Amino acid sequence: MKRFLNWFNDLYPVWLAGLSLIAFLHPESMLWFGKEWIFWALALSMLGMGLTLSPEDFKGIGAMPGSVVLGFVCQYTLMPVGGWLVGKMLRLPPDLAVGIILVASCPGGMASNVISYLAKANVALSVALTLFSTLLAFFFTPVWTSALAGKYVAVDAWGMSLSALKLTVAPVVVGVLVRWKNPRFADRLGACGPTVAVLAFTLVTGGIVAASARDIGENAGKLTLAALLLHLLGYLTGYLVPKLLRFPESVARTVSIEVGMQNGGMAASLARQHFPTMPLAAAAAVFSSIIQNLLGAMLAAWWKRRTPDA
Question: Model-level pTM greater than 0.85?
Answer without folding.
Answer: no
